[in-house]
C-alpha cells in the first residue's frame, strides 16, 4: 500500500441563515435580473412590498395633482402604492424596476384630455392605457386573480 502525505483538508459549510431568512434570500436571488444594463428585481406580484408606483410625466400643468388623486384612490382601495415625482420619467421607471414594483401608472397630457392613464409592466416594459376609474378593479383582479398584464388595458 502506498503512503500519501500532505496537508489534511476537512470541508465544512457555514450556515448563514435559518427559517424565513433562507426563503427571502432565495427569492431575492432568483428575482434579480438585468435588462439593457439596468437592474430589475422581478419579484412575484404576490410578495412585492410595493404593488403600484404612480408618476406624473412632468412636475407641472396639473399632472402632479392628478397623480396624487390616483395615488390616494389606490391607497384607499387597499393597495401598497408609492408616489414619485422627482427626476425624469425614465429614472423613475428605473428606480421602480430596481426595487421590484410590478406596475407603474403614469399621468400624462392625454390623461387631462380623456381621463386615462398609462400602465407599464416592470418585466416587459409594455405600456397599456385604461380609464382611471377602472384601475382599482383591474389591479385587484391582476393581484388576486392573476389575470395577465395584457388584460389591463389597450396597447399604446
Q: Going across the biggest sheet, name each strand in turn.
A: 4-3-5-6-7-8
Spans of at least 5 consecutive residues with low confidence: none
User: What is the name of the CATH class?
Assistant: Alpha Beta
| Shape field | elongated
Classify the oligomer: single chain
The separation of the N and C termini measures: 77 Å
CATH fourth-tier homologous superfamily:
Anticodon-binding domain
Strand elements, count: 8
Average pLDDT, rounded to a whole number, is: 91
Describe this protein with a few key phrases:
156 residues, alpha/beta, 6-stranded mixed sheet, two-stranded antiparallel ribbon, 8 strands
Describe it.
By secondary structure, the protein is of the alpha/beta class. It has a single domain (38-155), classed as Anticodon-binding domain (Rossmann fold, 3-Layer(aba) Sandwich). The chain is 34% helix and 22% strand. The chain contains five helices and eight strands. Strands 4-3-5-6-7-8 form a six-stranded mixed β-sheet, sandwiched between helices. The N and C termini lie far apart (77 Å). The relative contact order is 0.14. The model has no long low-confidence stretch (mean pLDDT 91).
Amino acid at each position: 500500500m502506498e503512503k500519501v502525505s500532505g496537508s489534511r483538508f476537512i470541508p465544512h459549510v457555514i450556515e448563514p441563515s435559518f427559517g424565513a431568512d433562507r426563503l427571502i434570500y432565495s427569492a431575492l436571488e432568483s428575482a434579480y435580473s438585468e435588462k439593457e444594463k439596468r437592474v430589475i428585481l422581478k419579484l412575484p406580484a404576490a410578495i412585492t412590498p410595493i404593488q403600484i408606483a404612480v408618476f406624473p410625466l412632468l412636475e407641472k400643468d396639473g399632472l402632479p395633482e392628478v397623480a396624487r388623486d390616483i395615488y390616494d384612490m389606490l391607497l384607499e382601495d387597499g393597495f401598497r402604492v408609492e408616489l414619485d415625482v422627482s427626476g425624469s420619467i425614465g429614472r423613475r421607471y428605473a428606480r421602480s424596476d430596481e426595487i421590484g414594483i410590478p406596475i407603474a401608472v403614469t399621468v400624462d397630457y392625454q390623461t387631462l384630455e380623456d381621463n386615462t392613464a398609462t400602465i407599464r409592466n416592470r418585466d416587459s416594459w409594455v405600456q397599456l392605457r385604461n380609464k382611471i376609474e377602472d384601475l382599482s378593479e383591474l389591479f385587484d383582479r391582476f393581484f388576486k386573480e392573476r389575470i395577465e398584464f395584457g388584460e389591463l388595458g389597450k396597447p399604446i
